[in-house]
Design brief:
The protein is of the alpha+beta class. It has helices at 27-33, 69-77, 83-92, and strands at 2-7, 15-19, 51-56, 98-100, 111-114.
Length: 115
Amino acid sequence: MANVTFTSPAMSKDVTVYATAGDCRTLLKVAQRNRIPVHFECQNGECGSCAIRVEVLANREPMGVHLTEKEKKVLRLAGKISKEQIAAAETTDLPPPWRLACQFIVRNEDILVTF
């Protein structure tokens, strides 16, 4: 199980929910299931409206990350991640700070999601 804490100026307080690691549901689906108001439009990684900042809350290295090609393109064009961050994600599994909620799969690690 992973604790996912959502924080946003759009919410009166932070909300922590449990997500099953390896469930293969996106973070956007976890948010929707728990009535967290993460903004989205297309749900398929093309518009970038569901861009979120993800921070690992453990005192250890973040788990391996997979950026979809859509995420790389959309987040790069939006100026959320750099070429260097994409390269680091591909070569060292170092996750970039920004992701798309509709593409991000929760892993077995506690995270803070800012939107």
